[in-house]
């Protein structure tokens, strides 16, 4: 039996940043070619529990043959069950997630996400294959703000969906594409994407002479050097196939690309792919009756620790307010206020017209 023409490598790293503890979790499961980053929310270790459940349940589901979005839905139900069992103390427990599954024989990859954890593809350009489930992204999509305004928006960390949120339906995004000659995938929590510009991401991921672990560590260090207020987690997955001609003629469409960045300047490249296609979106109602339980999976794991048996950087940085992390869930009040202001404007305009 001949050896496969393809090779998959993966590495990950994490750091608590300026926070007192790390609520991120991640998985590298080379046996099933499954990779995931989850960013827990809730404080007092509840976020860490949520992100760990998210990873454990999702990897178990994928190993059993479940698709990524349905697997996240099961993880969502498992976190909700944990909240119900733990009482009021865990009511704010939730987690974002981004997951990648490679199917080498089919020369195909798929991904799913909820919240603002991201997945980038490096193939000579840096491409964003996820779209944040965030307040700012929804305003941008509706044309109410510009990209420049979105980058500096004071509410850019407010997310609209996450695994375990009992007050809103779960919304997951999906994307997929062909695996050709070579590709490098970057999965990360917002602790990286919020503070490290695209130009720096490009500069680090393109260093083919460096090992994946060296590049993963460099990405985390770049976020720490940039201030690192939040937990920082990255997973790098490399795909190489010597049968590139066969792979490129597989007939599988490429993924939807939301943003692309120039590899030298890091500037955004005007993108039209998003206008031509949109990812599959699945919604799970709030307080779902779906069931699922978390089990610890084998393979490389991360829950506040780096993989490959390496300890996470242990810099004892000063603690920043945990309240800012939980504040991402106060978006509903903000939207309600906006709606009331808009309604007031409409009434005032009507009264003015009636009096004229």
Which helices and strands, and how do they pair?
Elements lengths: L5 E10 L8 E6 L4 E8 L4 H18 L4 H19 L7 E10 L4 E7 L3 E5 L3 E3 L6 H7 L5 H5 L18 E9 L3 E7 L1 H4 L4 H8 L6 H14 L6 E10 L2 H5 L10 E3 L6 E2 L3 H4 L4 E4 L15 E3 L20 H4 L4 H25 L1
Antiparallel strand pairs: 1-10, 2-3, 2-14, 3-4, 4-5, 5-8, 6-7, 6-9, 7-11, 8-13, 9-10, 11-12
Structure, explained:
It is built from 11 helices and 14 strands. The model is unreliable at 272-279, 287-300 and 303-356 (pLDDT under 50). The chain has a single domain, classed as 4-Layer Sandwich (Phosphatase 2c, domain 1). Strand 4 (94-103) and strand 5 form a beta hairpin. It is globular. The longest helix has 25 residues, at 331-355. The strands form 2 sheets. The chain has a 7-stranded antiparallel beta sheet. Strands 13-8-5-4-3-2-14 form a 7-stranded antiparallel beta sheet, with helices on one face. With 356 residues, it is of the alpha+beta class. It has helices at residues 46-63, 68-86, 135-141, 147-151, 190-193, 198-205, 212-225, 244-248, 273-276, 323-326, 331-355; strands spanning 6-15, 24-29, 34-41, 94-103, 108-114, 118-122, 126-128, 170-178, 182-188, 232-241, 259-261, 268-269, 281-284, 300-302.
């Amino acid at each position: 039996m001949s050896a496969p023409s393809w090779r998959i490598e993966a590495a990950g790293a994490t750091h608590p940043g300026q926070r007192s503890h790390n609520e991120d979790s991640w998985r590298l499961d080379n046996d099933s070619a499954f990779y995931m980053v989850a960013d827990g929310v809730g404080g007092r270790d509840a976020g860490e529990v949520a992100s760990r459940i998210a990873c454990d349940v999702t990897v178990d589901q994928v190993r059993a043959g479940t698709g990524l979005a349905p697997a996240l839905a099961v993880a969502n139900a498992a976190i909700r069950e944990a909240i119900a069992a733990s009482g009021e103390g865990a009511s704010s427990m939730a987690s974002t997630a981004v997951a990648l599954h490679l199917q080498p024989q089919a020369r195909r990859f798929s991904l799913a996400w909820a919240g603002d954890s991201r997945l980038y593809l490096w193939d000579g350009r840096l491409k964003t294959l996820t779209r944040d489930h965030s307040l700012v992204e929804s305003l941008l999509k509706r044309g109410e703000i510009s990209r420049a305004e979105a980058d500096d928006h004071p509410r850019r960390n407010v997310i609209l969906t996450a695994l375990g949120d009992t007050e809103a339906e779960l919304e997951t995004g999906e994307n997929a594409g062909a695996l050709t000659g070579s590709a490098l995938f970057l999965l990360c929590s917002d602790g990286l994407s919020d503070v490290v510009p695209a130009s720096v991401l490009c500069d680090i991921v393109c260093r083919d002479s460096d090992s994946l672990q060296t590049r993963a560590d460099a990405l985390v260090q770049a976020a720490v050097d940039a201030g690192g207020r939040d937990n920082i987690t990255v997973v790098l997955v490399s795909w190489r196939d010597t049968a590139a001609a066969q792979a490129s003629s597989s007939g599988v469409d490429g993924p939807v690309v939301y943003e692309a960045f120039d590899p030298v300047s890091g500037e955004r490249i005007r993108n039209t792919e998003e206008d031509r296609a949109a990812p599959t979106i699945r919604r799970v109602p709030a307080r779902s009756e779906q069931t699922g339980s978390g089990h610890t999976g084998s393979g490389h794991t991360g829950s506040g620790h780096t993989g490959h048996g390496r300890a996470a950087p242990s810099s004892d940085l000063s603690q920043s307010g945990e309240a800012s992390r939980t504040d991402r869930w106060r978006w509903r009040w903000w939207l309600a206020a906006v709606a009331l202001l808009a309604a007031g404007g409409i009434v005032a305009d009507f009264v003015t017209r009636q009096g004229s």
